[in-house]
Amino acid sequence: MTELLHKINFTSGSCRVILYSYNLDEMLKIKDDLIDLFEKKKGSPIKSSVFTSVIKFESKETRRIYYYKEFLDRGLKDILKNLFGFYRAKKAFKAGHMLLQENFHTPEPVLFGIKKKYFFILKNFLITESVDGERTYEYIKKHYIMPMTFRLIKEKRSMICAAGKEIGRLHKSEIFHGDLRVGNILISGTGENARFYFIDNERTVKRRGLSEKFRLKNLVQLNMLGLPHITRTDRLRFISSYIEANPGLSKTKKDLLRKIIFLTNKRKKHKFF
Q1: How does strand 185-188 pair with strand 195-198?
Q2: Cys bridge to 55: 68, 85, 145, 182, which one at CB 3.0-4.6 A?
Q3: Under DSSP, is residue 114 helix (H, G, I), strand (E, B) or coil?
């Protein structure tokens, strides 16, 4: 059964704000926070990409923590897409709910919306719930302090195997993440009980018959992780766990590894030159 997408709108100065959510009650409670967020009068700015602005805030009504993410126009193409209703916030909202429906972890998208004046879209934004997780780089450096004890090495290996299985399960479900850099994965918990949250999902899509091209793109993005904590054996362990979730790839494991290594090295050269 398809959920009902609720819509509300209200004025903010000379502009109109339109909000969409599956949870009408929560949307109505958060609505009053938006004016302050638009004017940057509340919340804490979070480091983000050049074309987004992110604020962490606590709602006055719900007393819960959320993230407000505003998608900034990257050029004329985005401006035109916004005019025809193809908002990046809308894509991220839908992709987040698709991941949840497929039993993957992601901060739950609460609402998305636009702020417009006449026909011009001034803002398009997404609000998600906060989750208890750390970005991959910070998580690894915090939990696996070098030199590592045998207990920590064992725990790290279990976490890497769990990560491989989760990415394998993602691809087995025919889901491609448009930007699967390790910075777009939050981790909570430890070892085999680690939980992985996918964020920045605006280009995450479900593709029937996920091709090798898209598998490789995600696997190369993850393999770009450059920390001394992660050894060559750890990377092989990750791929073995990935294939465990996709047994149909077991016969082409060596070929897959060669392609990942080749494309990773190629990408690193382009990155530094």
Answers
A1: antiparallel
A2: 68
A3: strand
CB atoms within 10 A of CB 163: 22
pTM of the model: 0.94
In three-state secondary structure terms, 177 is: coil
Report the alpha-carbon distance of residue 146 to residue 228 in Å, rounded: 9
Give pLDDT tens digits for 70-122.
999 999 999 999 999 999 999 999 999 999 999 999 999 999 999 999 989 99
Q: How far apart are the first and last CA of the chain?
A: 51
- Compute the radius of gyration of the chain from its Cα atoms: 20
**Measuring CA to CA, which residue among 128, 121, 126 is closest to residue 19?**
126
Proportion of the chain in helix, strand, coil states, percent, rounded to 5: 45, 25, 30
- Tokens 């593709």 sit at which residue? 207
Dihedral Cα 245, 251, 254, 258, nearest 10 deg: -80
* CA-based nearest residue to 113, from 27, 55, 43: 27
Nearest residue to 190 (alpha-carbon basis) of 221, 218, 151, 246? 151
Local structure of residue 54 (DSSP, 8 states): E
Identify whether the C-beta of residue 108 lies closer than 8 Å to the C-beta of residue 197.
no
Report the length, in residues, of the chain. Answer: 273
